[in-house]
Protein 1
Amino acid sequence: MIGVSHYLILSGLLFSIGFMGVLRRKNLLMLFFATEVMLNAVNIAFAAVGNYYGDLSGQMFAFFIIAVAASEVAVGLGLLILLYKKYGSLDLDVISSMKG
Amino acid sequence: MYEFIAFYIFAISTTILFMITVMSKNVLYAMTSLAAGMVMISGFFFILGADFLGVVQLIVYVGAVMALYSFAMMFFDATKDIKEKHNNPTLVFLLGGLMALVFVIIFSAPIIGENIEASYPIVNGVGNAQAVGIVLFTKYLVPFEVAAIMLLVAMIAGIILAGKKMDISLTKTVIQKEPEDEILKESK
């Protein structure tokens, strides 16, 4: 039997992988992929803790996270298409307008 | 025993696949490995007894979200490798590694909340899909409806944002058009 800490450590590792991607990526589409990795990691943690306490709330939160992720992708890809029309690139160095 | 083997297979494969997603230069490779990693994550849900969540993960993430991403990948010129200028890669790896360390320490610490009572306990003798349905349509009815409205708003936003002027090719250079506004024409 695998304890809940296994799942939580795995979820933490996956979240850090996604976080590293968010820090590292300069392309906006790839940044979206990294955020998806982070959302999935959190979903695993919710399902594991819900299973540990014998509670359905964890699964419920995971459902709502999936719904939020789906709508985030829909709006975000629309914005990406607008940005691509305006700048012809998705690179953050090209897009950034504030020279700080 | 089988749970043990399955957990480690899924854990190693998700970690490797998501590392490919984060590190790869090619959009196609990153997207494919992300989809495969999501399939593997649904395996965790099946192990944890959350069957319905696993099915939703497969349908929504692997089906819908990855289809959206692949359509987006067709809009952008994604065949060539992405060139990214990294100012300070060591700092990124240091921060990511530190965050992983912090998470592992937090989660491997003994769980303090032993006296937590399940507010919506899992009912015996009822399948996971039925139990989820009972809780979703009684206790979580209002968030469910709000989520439905949010999805509708997101759909309309996606159509409005992406749907305008789709007859113009994205990858070709945009031709500067004459201003159609009456005031702008007069001012010329």
Note: Residues 95 and 101 of chain B are 10 Å apart (CA to CA).
Protein 2
Amino acid sequence: MIDINLLSKKYGEQTVLDIDLLNIPSGQTFGLVGNNGAGKTTLFSLILDLIEATTGEVKNNEIVVSKDEHWKNHTAAFVDEQFLIGYLTPEEYFYFVGGLRNMKKDAIKSALEPYKDFFHGEVLGQKKYIRDLSKGNQKKVGIVGTLISNTPLVILDEPFANLDPTTQIRLKKLLKEEASATGKTFLISSHDLQHITDVCDRIVVLNKGKIVRDVITSSKTLKELEAFFQEQL
Amino acid sequence: MYKKFIYLQWKSFFRAAGVASKLAQKILIGVVWAYFAFVFSGLAFIAFYGIQEEFGLDPLPTVSGFLIYAFALWIVIRYFIQKMPMVHVQPLLTLPLSKKRIVHFGLAKSTISFFNIINLFFFIPFGFILLKEDYNLWGVISWGLSIGCIILTTNFLNVLLNSQDRLLLVATAILLGLFGLQYYELFDITAFSEPVFMAPYYQPLWLLAPLALMIFSYRQSFEHFLKKLYMDSDEMRPKKEVQRATELKWLDGFGRTSFFLKNDIRLIVRNKRARMAVWMGVAFLFYGLIFMMDIYDYPLTKVFVGIFVTGGFLFSFGQFVPSWDSSYYALMMTQNVPYKEYLKSKWWLVVVGTLVSIPLASFYIFFSWESYFAILAGGIYNIGVNAHMVLLSGAYTRTPIDLNSMQRAFGDKKSFNAKTILLGIPKIFLPMFIFYIGVLVHSKLMGFILIGVVGVLGFALRNLVFDWIEKVYQNEKYQTLAAYKQKNT
């Protein structure tokens, strides 16, 4: 699904990302961990063509993202609040995002149905604009916005941050179900090692812009990751 | 402590996105300053010797009498154009600074503005002329100080007015009412205002009155902002229930463009800053009235007016495309949004705004056919050419607009400022030039027709132009995204 070749991003002299090779096959739930400044958001921004690569390129389904915009047809992403439209109600936001992907209003309504639990009655039908929702509820809106349109690739930057414990558990369940039921490819980053090992098939550790670990998740993975970050002290 | 505040302001200016363009603006604004300084100094001479020789009146009392209009007009103009100095208060709130200090600083900074200082260029030369013409020294000083107090009072009133639209309407109504009464010789306010403003000249003790007024207005705005300096006050964070569901079904006929149109209409309805663009459109409809006076009765100025009368909304809204969407630009760039659809939606908005203005402006027919032709030609030109031009210049504007927290105290509240005016100038000169050619070739009518023809031509070529603008937007994409990440600049 994603093929990265000799990709780097420099700001002046400083290299913030330097990846020789990274292939993410279709259907994988791919987890990205690393400390602040490791390059997680930079990598996602490059995959989404929000910033320009210094060298190399990202291919999304064989499409070079910086040259051809058609990757947008099968990709949905939620990185930060820059992906929300504050003056819309959550419903209007979903109709907008879904509508751009040629979904009819009724289809969007029924696509929202499975997420009622996830919203916990605090998002839909509230007659509130997104800007007036709490940070956690805003995040829920952003995440669900990437799921309703059934794109084969979903990119979520730090989806667990700002969510309450119950919702974190719900989100884990949701992501696992989506991945197994629909065969979607997920790219997820997190600072929470427990959550990411629970959800992802494969975990890549970034450190100072480079890939330092690349493992298929097993029962030992969490321990190994904890050991790795312990070493960074 | 104050040094720290000034340091913050300094940094935010030089570290903001697009510093180079800001510097260019500052230079242009400098030129505007020089112009107004010159005009105001000149006015001081005209006000004295003109009144003395043309009307045979004593200049000082006459000027004093009419000051009431100057002050009222000042309040109204300030409301629209003066920008509140920006102090980014939210991050300061938890620092060990007393709230009083933060507010004092904001208010002190508001006094150092064009609208206050420009007055000095009138009153100081005027004062020297008075002294030269043997007016009483202490009287003149006392009179000047009292005027200064009143100017500062209007300044602080403006700070208050900025949060209350109703007060503005009252000030405008009083101004127009008094002027109307005076014009039809029913009631002459200057007969009352003259002794009031002259009092400090005859008896310096009267200076205490405007001084008290100034202190009072300062205290009022101080109290106002001190109370509003909470994160959850209306000023800092508006929290409103949705009034009614707006389905906007009637827009579905526009196909994919309708998604954007719906958003844009909600943008305008639900954000004060965007609503302001609509009000500018309404205000500019009447802009032509001042140009109906004899001294402005030249065909070339009519072309100028024609562009503005129908283009108020076009300029004030279009100038900030795509900045209106700055807070969620990253979302737009990752959806399968064809730029063209996005641009078309904005284009439709400004075109519809202009189309609505043209029949609304038809009352100018009562003044002269020439005025009406100018407005008609200007409208066509706006639709055909300027609608594209504003979208194009928008690609380079890159000022992030923070819709979510725009109502913060001392915030940058006005969507219409000196910068938008400056950016609008190139869009005005071309039609004037075209008109001039028409006049040279044949007649004034020919000039108006030529402007219209160029407009129609631009309209016919719109798909070509869209392709071009699309490329510009795409080339600017990464820079625009980077600039929008930087909020509060």
Note: Chain B has two domains: 2-6+28-227, 250-485.
